[in-house]
Specification:
Number of helices: 20
CATH architecture of the largest domain: Up-down Bundle
CATH class of the largest domain: Mainly Alpha
Helix content: 40-55%
Strand content: 5-15%
Number of domains: 2
Largest sheet: 3 strands, antiparallel
Radius of gyration: 27 Å
CATH superfamily of the largest domain: Fumarase/aspartase (Central domain)
Length: 530
């Protein structure tokens, strides 16, 4: 079993995905063991002791011996501090909606501990260990997905996680394949309910941790999805015998956008050696081709393909650069202190606490909104290519609707599905980060709504996977119908993709139950089969 060591400094995106999703081998599905580094154990103890010294000195510190939010002026007597933690958690357990996916909860638990490992939160080692004990035992709190405004962090979502740690009977936990109450889960794991001490209730909840977990998994998948988009484009491009002039690197270098250059390079590599994307191939009139024009008996050049083909490198290149921008933002947050207040060690060895806004989800919210737009651009232009493959005006000789006969509907209605998903994406791409509703009697007067951005991002990503899967099916189908006219005509990369798609969705000339094929294709993409 692989072990990942947390120190709050160098947790990587690949480790994050492994923590969330585990790995497969011949013996089954495995998750890494997660531990704190020796240095972080020492740091946690040092910073916690420093905080307790401040508490003993009766220093007034927000969230430590005061109330939270609009109740910041309420001073909590030392004798009531522990009781206050027990009140705080259920009062914050107000989330609603369908539960978050287990991969998101699993990752959020570890991200929270990694943030604490830096010491700035002043959280006890025992609290961090209880969270890791849950993770390592595969105990996943059942956490409703709605209710966070993205500041002060994902308060209610993290409160439900904390409710599991302290054994609230109202809180459910998934352990193995069973759902049980938190006390039952603690009993199964031979763990005692955690008793939270000063600052810990607010410390656990004060971070945009669930937002971050969703964003990290989304951007990881978005990188793969863009590669699948390039592959789908390559098949569709081969199917219509597209013009490679639009991919000429001189065009894209002339505009100075490296994303477009890189996309053009990848598509050119996929279609290298293609005999279909040539003037000679385009001059051939296919049986179903009705629009070809002739001048003095010679077919006129096509001149230009539609934007969805001709401008693909420009559009997808923009999405590539956006994905990389968002990835950089999200990766920075993996090893960040996102609590309030934070504890800092001064040069003279003493400690001070500073209140700020590191819990605020705005950096994540803006990047997530931007990433949604990038994904929708990929989905939108893919849907337009799919539509082109079905239309005699743009498909250059493919059967109308990619139907096998006049009695068949072909893929006409499948394109309705992609149109629906693309339309839904447009609604979901509304930027949540620009929409703030003041909370906590105006004390928390500008919130990020970043969790909404992240939830919508996940849906946009899911929709886009489906759209790309549909285009791969359509592109391969178009090639299947015309392959006899261009034997061995595909580029080397396109040929490999074509064979893979045909192995997942075997070619059937007549109509069939397309939904099953679509799900198989999408699942192949999500499992990285291509």
């Amino acid at each position: 079993m692989e072990t990942i060591i947390l120190n709050g400094v160098d947790l990587t995106l690949d480790q994050v995905v492994l923590i969330a999703r585990g790995s497969h081998d011949g013996s089954g599905h495995h998750y890494p063991l997660v531990k704190l580094s020796d240095s972080s154990v020492k740091t946690l103890k040092e910073f916690r002791q420093a905080l307790e010294v401040r508490i003993a000195a009766k220093d007034i510190i927000y969230g430590v011996n005061t109330g939270c939010g609009s109740k910041k002026g309420v001073i909590i007597p030392p004798s009531d501090i522990i009781a206050y933690q027990a009140r705080y958690i259920p009062a914050h357990c107000v989330a609603t909606g369908v539960p978050l996916p287990e991969e998101v909860v699993r990752l959020a638990m570890v991200l929270r501990v990694n943030s604490f490992a830096k010491g700035n939160s002043g959280i006890r080692l025992a609290t961090c260990q209880q969270i890791l004990d849950f993770y390592n035992a595969r105990a996943i709190p059942v956490i409703p997905s709605q209710g966070s405004v993205g500041s002060s962090g994902d308060l209610c979502l993290l409160a439900h996680m904390a409710a599991a740690l302290i054994g609230r009977k109202e809180q459910l936990v998934t352990l193995g394949r069973e759902i049980m109450t938190a006390p039952e889960a603690l009993g199964e794991m031979n763990l005692e309910p955690l008793v939270l001490e000063a600052k810990e209730a607010m410390g656990i909840t004060n971070g945009s941790t669930f937002t971050l977990a969703m964003c990290l998994l989304a951007v990881y998948d978005a990188e793969r999805l863009l590669r699948y988009s390039n592959q789908a484009f390559a098949l569709s491009f081969e199917a219509i015998r597209g013009e490679k002039a639009a991919l000429d690197l001189r065009i894209h270098k002339a505009r100075n956008h490296q994303g477009a250059v890189r996309i053009a390079e990848e598509v050119l590599a996929l279609t290298h050696g293609s005999k279909r994307t040539t003037d000679k191939a385009r001059a051939i009139k296919l049986p179903d081709e009705t629009h070809k024009k002739y001048h003095e008996g010679v077919p006129t050049p096509r001149v230009q393909d539609a934007y969805s083909f001709r401008a693909y490198a420009t559009v997808a290149g923009s999405s590539l650069e956006t994905i990389e921008f968002a990835k950089d933002i999200f990766i920075r947050e993996i090893n960040a202190s996102t609590d309030n207040p934070l504890l800092f060690k001064k040069d003279d060895g003493t400690f001070e606490t500073l209140s700020g806004g590191n819990f605020h989800g705005e950096p994540l919210a803006q990047a997530a909104d931007y990433l949604k737009i990038a994904l929708q651009s990929i989905a939108g232009i893919s849907d337009r290519r799919f539509y082109a493959l079905l239309s005699s005006a743009f498909s250059y000789g493919l059967p109308d609707d990619l139907a096998g006969s006049e009695l068949d509907t072909g893929l006409m209605i499948l394109q309705y599905t992609t149109a629906s998903l693309v339309s839904q994406n447009k609604v979901l791409c509304y930027p949540s980060a620009v929409d703030s509703i003041p909370t906590s009697a105006g004390q928390e007067d500008y919130v990020s709504m970043g969790t909404i951005s992240a939830l919508n991002l996940r849906q946009v990503l899911e929709n886009t996977f489906t759209v790309i899967a549909a285009e791969l099916m359509a592109g391969a189908r178009g090639i299947n119908f015309t392959e006899s006219h261009f034997p061995n005509g595909l580029g080397a990369g396109s040929r490999s993709i074509f064979r893979l798609v045909n192995s997942i969705v075997p070619f059937e000339k007549d109509d069939c139950f397309w939904s099953l094929h679509l799900e198989n294709m999408k699942n192949a993409l999500k499992s990285n089969s291509l």
